[in-house]
Amino acid sequence: MRRRLPFVVLVLVSLALPACTVPVGAGNQPTKQAVAVKKPATAPAAASHARAHRRRPKPLPPRFYGRVLPFTHAFAMQLKQTTWHPGCPVRLRDLRLLTMRYWGFDHRVHQGYMEINEAVAHDVVTVFQKLFQARFPIAEMQVANPYVPGVRDDPRSKADFTNGFNCRPVVTAVGAAPRWSMHSYGLAIDVNQMQNPYVTSSGFVYDVFARRYRNRSLHLPGMIHPGDVVVRAFQSIGWHWGGDWTPDKDYMHFSVNGH
């Protein structure tokens, strides 16, 4: 899913609570100490908006930070209003919100958010710690957009997200399939959707601006290739890559069972 989801109150509520586990650190081994994450600043007053807009935000330190936030009532309510609905194959209580730092395409450190199944939450943090240490660029990490049956995203969208849980069917370049996606269980992640598109066996790519990336002989920032740091990081927790599928390829997709 490609549309931008507005920033939600649940992040502010959740960040104020203690973490369950925090793999974090600049080296290869995570430490148990958490680095405090400041709440996002409120919007500037109208009179000073133009001046504030020109100022670049204070850069985050080049140290990995990953946190599995505890399940809260606010998080459950937000899930019910966005990516979860009755009939989903996973319970609300089995989902968790992650907040993690990542390197952007602008060579700066950013803070992102992802919803994932509790059973794999800590493993997922270790994966993105490895990507951070390798400075693998991520365009934008955010929670997924709600899936609307029968409505396809704009093929000319330039959205380029990395996200996890979304209660929806399998979605291919030619439309939805009649079965649950592993994203519906919180057991799959898409990484850089534009640079790593779904490519059918005939070479069709739905998103117009992703079509240049069907040429996998290119080695452009954010692309994933066999045996690279992204594939190895997910393999280290037993996950499988959609780039190994045949005949179609889903280069963005990683999941617990390979589907």
List the helices and strands and how they pair.
Layout lengths: L8 H7 L33 H6 L11 E4 L3 H9 L13 E9 L5 E9 L3 H13 L35 E4 L2 E6 L7 E3 L7 E2 L29 H7 L4 E2 L7 E2 L2 E3 L4
Antiparallel strand pairs: 1-2, 2-3, 4-5, 6-10, 7-9, 8-10
Helix pairs in contact: 4-5
Can you describe what's shown?
With 259 residues, the chain is α+β, with helices and mostly antiparallel strands. The chain has one domain. It is 16% helix and 17% strand. It is built from five helices and ten strands, in the order ααβαββαββββαβββ. A three-stranded antiparallel sheet has the order 1-2-3, sandwiched between helices. Strands 6-10-8 form a three-stranded antiparallel sheet, with helices on one face. Strand 4 and strand 5 form a beta hairpin. Helix 4 packs antiparallel against helix 5. The longest helix has 13 residues. The protein starts with 8 loop residues before the first helix and ends with a strand. The N terminus is likely disordered.
Strand order of the largest sheet: 1-2-3
Q: Percent of residues in helical segments?
A: 10-25%
* Domain tally: 1
Radius of gyration: 18 Å
Q: Indicate the proportion of strand residues.
A: 15-25%
Q: Give start-end ranges of low-pLDDT stretches.
A: 3-50
Count of strand segments? 10
Mind summarizing the main beta sheet? 3 strands, antiparallel
Helix/sheet category: alpha+beta
Mean pLDDT: 84
Number of helices: 5
Q: First CA to last CA: what distance?
A: 17 Å
